[in-house]
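> example.struct
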């Protein structure tokens, strides 16, 4: 589109249009406005702003590629930096032309390399899994905050190396930056409410000393050390990442979820061929165009499709309208993951095309890939709501309902049993005995991690689970502690009364259903009574790794407190707070204070009696602790029985036999009484040995074995303790 020497008379003037593409009405439903703009001509003049605009694919795409005529150096928003003071120092990449742009873009392309992104993948997958565990525990959830925002917020700031404190400034900053490309309307004013504070935080984050050593931020500064850019420019490029990297990706995810809910057939296709996710990403960006518009400024008189556009004009490019121009696309308003999206301008086009798209694509593939394995179907559970922004097409609320994949219960291989000698049996407190188990010939024992337990065969046919409470770095012994409960089904009584020093007993290899989260920045350990056992091992491990943690141990009285002396002598004594039910009020545990304001990446571990754990977990959830940061294990003997229990039927799928389960029986008891073989171990929903697939009906889960997400699928249950909500369960037996 070169400047041409033509008489102005031979060129026609672009038609005038009185339309405000930044009004709330336009932004709420931009599509009719986009059609008007396209149909009015290849170039139109927006009288309200005195600027030119283009909305057809051919012209938008051509202008984006002709950076010499349509420059970025005078701003990518409405404001002309040649005439107005920019709201912040201009971006040295987005709002720059060659040669500066070439140099700064070169720096980011050296930082955001494929190998660098590949290194992030595994960690992202883990984080996606943790987020989905929490979100999918509920069949209804808010798609924007719980998923579309939660995931990028979890991975992107870490990838850049942003400090954990103050990350809540990131989204307000981006909202402000994207509004600032538009006119000074009420939207911009509103998002600028806390501008000074938010901008100051961002500026601080961009400094070298505030960036983590391994992130993209530090990599950018490493380029300053090579002399490619100055120290100040490095800070500006970090600011670019923080301006452009979060809300854009968030919205690609949010729009994708919205599209999947409206097009279940396409979600089904993705589930069948996950390789379609890559193309889906581009189709979402085309179809929804999270970035709707950008501006350029003409550097010379030019003509577009026979119409004159003078030098020094702001030109508004409607990326979103170009992406749905019927002159270019067949059925443009149809979301179709199989279409060829080549040439879409959702990432811009030409020298300024989005440099972060590979990172966004990676995030998208990881989350959508994880969802594809677990979610069969998305449905809207109410109306979505949009958040108006001068540049972004942003979903604010997306109420979703999901139907989950049937999780076939994993085949769990029975681990080998070990025969160990009781080297020491010791009364730790009234009714609490510890047992030190060693290899009879003194060999090293299989290693265990903090939180692990042993299945202990108390006697033939009676197996119970006990947490290991010694230091996990010890290899010569296992230490368990057992509370004698005369009301329970005999395990603890038998261990107290029938097992002596010198005796050999059979135990499983250590199993861990209560592991520490590797990524925790800080851990809060909370034990009630005998729940101290796994917590002791955790404290021992955390102190040895130099981790930040605090431990709370609640018991009925000092006399009934097991391991008191060990704790007082330990290397972590200073981290421990003791709380006695019969002690002075000021030493009781203050849940509100202990659980207040969870830092990002603080993990909570709770073990104790059910009522205790319920209180702690309820208090944590009330203070917005994310589910993925809550870890808990019920200690033995905590199966719920209620007076409301009623009779129901179970049907064996293989034989169609129907067996009645009476209100005073467990499913396991009813099955065994009818001669149906079933392997049982703990009989209290802790070990998972009896896990059975449920083909129809809804179980009433009472175990502490399945994860909340597994439970929500209703595809398996533990017949040793769980019951039925429906009148019949069809079991895969
Ligand atoms: C939009 O600050 C910047 O450099 C910058 C801000 C916003 C973007 C790009 C760069 C395209 C995502």
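> example.seq
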């Amino acid at each position: 589109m070169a400047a041409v020497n033509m008489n102005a008379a031979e060129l026609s003037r672009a038609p005038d249009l009185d339309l405000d593409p930044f009004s709330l009405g336009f932004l709420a439903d931009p599509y009719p406005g986009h059609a008007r703009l396209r149909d009015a001509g290849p170039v139109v003049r927006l009288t309200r702003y005195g600027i030119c605009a283009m909305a057809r694919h051919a012209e938008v795409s051509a202008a984006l590629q002709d950076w010499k005529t349509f420059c970025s150096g005078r701003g990518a928003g409405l404001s002309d930096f040649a005439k107005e003071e920019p709201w912040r120092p201009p971006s040295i990449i987005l709002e720059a032309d060659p040669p500066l742009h070439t140099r700064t873009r070169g720096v980011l392309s050296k930082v955001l390399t494929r190998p660098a992104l590949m290194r992030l993948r595994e960690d992202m997958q883990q984080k996606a899994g943790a987020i989905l565990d929490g979100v999918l525990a509920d069949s209804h959830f808010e798609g924007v905050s719980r998923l579309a925002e939660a995931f990028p917020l979890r991975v992107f700031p870490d990838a850049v190396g942003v400090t954990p404190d103050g990350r809540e400034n990131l989204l307000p900053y981006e909202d402000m930056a994207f509004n600032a490309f538009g006119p000074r309307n009420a939207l911009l004013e509103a998002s600028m409410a806390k501008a000074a504070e938010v901008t100051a935080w961002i500026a601080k984050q961009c400094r070298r000393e505030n960036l983590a050593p391994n992130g993209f931020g530090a990599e950018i500064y490493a380029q300053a050390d090579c002399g490619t850019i100055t120290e100040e420019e490095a800070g500006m490029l970090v600011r670019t990442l923080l301006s452009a990297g979060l809300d854009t990706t968030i919205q690609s995810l949010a729009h994708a979820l919205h599209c999947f809910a409206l097009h279940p057939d396409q979600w089904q296709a993705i589930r069948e061929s996950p390789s379609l996710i890559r193309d889906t990403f581009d189709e979402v960006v085309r179809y929804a165009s999270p970035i709707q518009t950008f501006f350029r400024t003409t550097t010379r008189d030019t003509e577009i499709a026979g119409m004159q556009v003078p030098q020094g004009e702001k030109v508004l490019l409607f990326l979103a309208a170009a992406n749905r121009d019927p002159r270019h696309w067949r059925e443009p308003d149809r979301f179709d993951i199989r279409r060829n999206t080549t040439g879409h301008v959702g990432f811009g086009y030409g020298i300024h095309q989005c440099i972060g798209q590979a990172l966004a694509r990676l995030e998208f593939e990881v989350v959508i890939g994880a969802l594809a394995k677990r979610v069969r179907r998305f449905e809207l559970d109410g109306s979505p709501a949009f958040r108006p922004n001068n540049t972004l097409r942003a979903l604010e609320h997306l109420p979703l309902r999901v139907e989950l994949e049937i999780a076939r219960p994993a085949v769990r291989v029975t681990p080998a049993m070990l025969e160990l000698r009781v080297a020491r049996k010791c009364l730790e407190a009234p009714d609490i005995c510890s047992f030190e188990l060693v290899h009879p010939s003194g060999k090293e024992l299989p290693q265990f991690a903090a939180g692990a337990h042993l299945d202990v065969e108390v006697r033939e046919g009676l197996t119970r689970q006990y947490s290991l409470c010694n230091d996990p770095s010890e290899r010569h012994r296992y230490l368990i502690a057992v509370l004698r409960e005369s009301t329970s089904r005999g395990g603890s009584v038998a261990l107290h009364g029938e097992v002596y020093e010198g005796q050999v007993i059979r135990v499983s290899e250590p199993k861990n259903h209560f592991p520490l989260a590797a990524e925790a920045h800080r851990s809060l350990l909370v034990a009630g009574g005998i729940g101290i056992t796994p917590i002791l091992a955790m404290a021992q491990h955390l102190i040895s790794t130099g981790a930040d943690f605090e431990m709370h141990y609640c018991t009925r009285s000092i006399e009934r407190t097991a391991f008191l002396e060990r704790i007082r002598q330990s290397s972590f004594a200073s981290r421990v707070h003791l709380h006695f039910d019969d002690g002075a009020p000021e030493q009781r545990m203050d849940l509100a204070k202990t659980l207040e304001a969870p830092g990002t990446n603080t993990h909570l571990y709770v073990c104790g009696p059910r009522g205790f754990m319920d209180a702690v977990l309820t208090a944590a959830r009330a203070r917005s602790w994310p589910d993925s940061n809550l870890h808990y294990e019920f200690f033995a003997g905590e199966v719920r029985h209620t007076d409301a229990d009623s009779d129901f039927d179970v049907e064996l799928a293989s034989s169609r036999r129907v067996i009645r389960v009476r209100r005073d029986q467990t499913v396991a008891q009813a099955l065994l009484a009818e001669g149906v073989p079933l392997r049982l171990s703990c009989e209290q929903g802790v070990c998972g040995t009896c896990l059975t697939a449920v083909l129809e009906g809804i179980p009433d889960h009472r175990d502490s074995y399945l994860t909340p997400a597994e439970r929500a699928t209703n595809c398996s249950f533990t017949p040793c303790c769980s019951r039925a909500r429906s009148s019949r369960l069809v079991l895969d037996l």
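> remarks
The chain has 23 helices and 31 strands.
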